[in-house]
């Protein structure tokens, strides 16, 4: 029997590549009978992806083959401003022929295509080459349920979601235990012109694959996973998370941050970090600074500028904080607070001094925080972060609500009073939330070891792949 080879095609953002690469690595660690190639689709606006992939290729013990595809005539950047999700979809669809030719040329025993959720157009390639396709979903099981629900919603109501709808204020989406208010739905599905149709097309194709592979674990999202698995219209569900890249960072800034944390008492520091594309205007930074000072909390604060929509890459920090923040703030908080630009998030969350995390609620960040037992206060900014925050607060009871429906560029100023209240709740050692988070911390680690739910589910996926290759 030839060595069966899977081909992965992640979405073009680093967050997507991270979880795809970690899943591929764990598959190869579990079973040497498999081979895996990851095809990397680039964009004109994510130059950092090339460097990240090169670091993966050169990492010790790497057994994954990475092929960076040539950039095929990308869509106009005007489409990116109009709807980033549609831009990425068109970009990937434009690579269909290139993906097919690359597989035919480089993959000897092609046994399955694993596509990210923006890559459903590539299911056609798997069909043409007569191999099964699988969806790798790097976000929550509940959000996957929302994607599957989009065609049903349109069939029922004949329209997209509407945040201004006076007749319907919330929606009964099967994978959420509570009705979901329109205010926390992802911005893209509230876009009646392009976004909703784009995502509905993806959702409608999810059921064409042979399996749904989700970066979650049953103990965390039992309601959503059970709902997906019990629907006979859905493909087989594999829960394989948490998939985390826990490699330690390096560099001068890393050493400076770790040295600061080393001087702080255990569980005393609140970490504020909003992802590689999350930032705020100066007026909002002032409110955060006032809240931090009034709360008396020790803090590590990663500050980035608010990103321009047409620049979807990593954003930069401010160079003139003295002019932006309240006069004397940096001096008054010296010793108990530190401000940085980039922050080594995994290493910070792993540090014993960190006791709380004000987060944008990207799914990778949520999984990292639970893995390290650090409770979150929710401050979503973009993508599906609002509905992630909703699930964490309302369905799972695992986060402090700071904001749920906040969106980048929405023009809303979150007051220092709101922020201070959330900080005090988050860092309150008597908050019962802390016990729940620590319990989930233990469950997350048990899920991925021998006998755990995700370990067994990954084993089931491997056996399904190998059984299709018995000759």
UniProtKB/TrEMBL annotation:
First-level EC class: transferase
Its EC number(s): 2.4.1.-
Organism domain of life: Eukaryota
Pfam families (alphabetical): UDPGT
Keywords per UniProt: Glycosyltransferase, Transferase
CDD domains: GT1_Gtf-like
Keyword S-adenosyl-L-methionine: no
Gene Ontology terms, MF aspect: UDP-glucosyltransferase activity
Cross-referenced InterPro entries: UDP-glycosyltransf_plant (IPR050481), UDP_glucos_trans (IPR002213), UDP_glycos_trans_CS (IPR035595)
Family: Belongs to the UDP-glycosyltransferase family.
Protein name from the UniProt record: Glycosyltransferase
Protein's organism: Arnebia euchroma (Pink arnebia)
Phylogenetic lineage: Eukaryota, Viridiplantae, Streptophyta, Embryophyta, Tracheophyta
């Amino acid at each position: 029997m030839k060595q069966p080879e899977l081909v992965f095609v992640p979405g073009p953002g680093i967050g997507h590549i991270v979880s795809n690469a970690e899943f591929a690595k764990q598959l190869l660690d579990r079973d040497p009978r498999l081979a895996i190639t990851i095809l990397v689709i680039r964009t004109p606006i994510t130059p950092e992806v090339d460097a990240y992939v090169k670091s993966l290729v050169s990492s010790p013990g790497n057994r994954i083959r990475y092929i960076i595809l040539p950039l095929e005539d990308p869509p106009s950047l005007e489409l990116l401003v109009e709807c980033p999700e549609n831009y990425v979809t068109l970009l990937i669809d434009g690579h269909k022929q290139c993906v097919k030719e690359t597989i035919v040329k480089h993959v000897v025993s092609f046994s399955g295509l694993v596509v990210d959720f923006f890559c459903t157009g590539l299911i056609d390639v798997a069909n043409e080459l007569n191999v099964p396709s699988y969806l790798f979903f790097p976000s929550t099981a509940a959000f996957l349920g929302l994607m599957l629900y989009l065609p049903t919603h349109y069939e029922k109501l004949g329209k997209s979601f509407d945040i201004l709808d006076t007749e319907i204020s919330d929606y009964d989406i099967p994978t959420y235990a509570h009705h979901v208010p329109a205010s926390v739905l992802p911005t893209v599905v509230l876009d009646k012109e392009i976004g909703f149709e784009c995502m509905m097309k993806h959702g409608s194709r999810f059921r064409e694959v042979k399996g749904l592979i989700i970066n979650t674990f049953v103990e965390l999202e039992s309601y959503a996973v059970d709902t997906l698995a019990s629907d006979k219209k859905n493909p087989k569900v594999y829960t394989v998370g948490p998939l985390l890249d826990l490699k330690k960072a390096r560099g001068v800034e890393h050493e400076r941050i770790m040295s600061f944390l080393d001087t702080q008492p255990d569980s005393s520091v609140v970490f504020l970090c909003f992802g590689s594309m999350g930032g705020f205007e100066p007026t909002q930074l002032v409110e955060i600074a006032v809240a931090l000072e009034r709360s008396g909390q020790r803090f590590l604060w990663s500050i980035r500028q608010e990103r321009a929509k047409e620049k979807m890459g990593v954003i930069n920090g401010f160079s003139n904080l003295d002019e932006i923040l309240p006069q004397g703030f940096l001096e008054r908080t010296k010793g108990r607070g530190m401000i940085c630009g980039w922050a080594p998030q995994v290493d910070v969350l792993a540090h014993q001094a960190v006791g709380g995390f004000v987060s944008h609620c990207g799914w990778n960040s949520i999984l990292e925080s639970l893995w390290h037992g650090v409770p979150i206060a929710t401050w979503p900014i973009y993508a599906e972060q609002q509905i992630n925050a909703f699930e964490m607060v309302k369905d799972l009871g695992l986060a402090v609500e700071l904001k749920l429906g906040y969106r980048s560029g929405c023009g809303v100023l979150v007051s220092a009073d709101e922020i201070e209240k959330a900080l005090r709740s988050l860092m309150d050692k008597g908050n019962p939330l802390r016990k729940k988070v620590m319990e989930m911390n233990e469950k997350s680690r048990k899920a991925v070891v021998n006998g755990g739910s995700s370990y067994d589910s990954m084993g089931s996926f491997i056996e399904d792949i190998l059984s299709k290759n018995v000759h």
